[in-house]
Amino acid sequence: MSKSTFRILFYLRKNYLNKSGKAGIMIRLTVNGDMVQFSSKLDIEPSLWDTKAGKAAGNSVKARQMNSMLEDIRTALSNHYRYVESRDSFVTAEKVRNAFLGYEVRQQTLLELFKQHNEDASKLNGISKAPATLVKYDRTYRRLEEFMKVKYKVSDIALREIDHKFVTDFEFYLRTVQPVQREYYGQVHADIPQDSPHRQKQRMDNHRPVCKLSYSHESGGQGLSDGAGTGAYSPKGL
Questions:
Q1: Which residue of 87, 121, 213, 222 lies most exposed, with the fewest beta carbons within 10 A?
Q2: Is 59 helix (H, G, I), strand (E, B) or coil?
């Protein structure tokens, strides 16, 4: 969740010319040393390309038009990079490329899920949810929001980015920075999909949790568990 380095380079695919004698303009995207390469869908005569500058050479109408399109691509990539950086716990070149190409399926975020949970719960006010319980839900949401801004400098996080370290960091935050008072204990369960890279597809299909943010009367307080019912704790003060 730290600040990433981000670079965009345009270069020619000189080893292949199309029937018009033009070479495809490729994009090399680098984030923290992680690199991906893909086509810009643009092409140009090799003699009109400035390799050092990474753009069309000269000041002709054709060169200006080409460079304008390249600058539009650069701007779009930069916007996608900033969006992914603000949304996820970390940025990769592949994520930015996929967002730019439209391959990315929008991922639900933790606060988005929590907010929906609280809105649904508010509809049950006086039916199956007491007003005090709704207050606890709201406080939990705000503590989680504060934690991500303080610890990770992000406004939200995709569910698939959450791992065990995130949960333990939040637990530490609740214990030390924002201790929880006993009268605010409630019961909230926000399932967090498992973070194992080799099981991403199964995670998205089945939404199996690896851990939970657990706020339980049974545990005697506000706590976190690893999905197996362990690891609850009872911090003090809010």
A1: 121
A2: coil
Q: Which class for 205: exposed (0-12), middle (13-18), buried (19 or more C-beta within 10 A)?
A: exposed
Task: Using a cut of 0.85, tell me whether the model's pTM lies above it.
Answer: no
Tokens at residue 90, please?
């970390």
Spell out the per-residue pLDDT of the chain, length 238, in tens.
Answer: 455 689 999 999 988 899 999 999 999 999 988 899 999 999 999 999 999 999 999 999 999 999 999 999 999 999 999 988 887 767 889 989 988 988 866 667 889 889 999 999 999 998 988 999 999 899 889 999 999 988 888 888 878 778 888 888 988 888 887 665 544 433 333 433 334 343 444 444 444 333 445 443 333 333 344 343 333 333 333 3
Phi, psi of 45 (to 5 degrees): -65, 130
Beta strands in the chain (DSSP E): 6-17, 23-31, 34-44, 49-50, 55-56, 189-193, 209-216, 221-225
Residue 81 identity: Y
- DSSP-derived 3-state class of residue 20: coil
How far is residue 61's CA from residue 235's CA, in Å, rounded to a whole number?
67
Torsions phi, psi for 12 (to 5 deg) = -95, 145
Question: How many other CB atoms sit within 10 Å of the CB of residue 236?
Answer: 11
Residue 110 makes CB contacts below 8 A (sequence gap 6+) with 144, 156, 157, 158, 159, 162, 190, 192
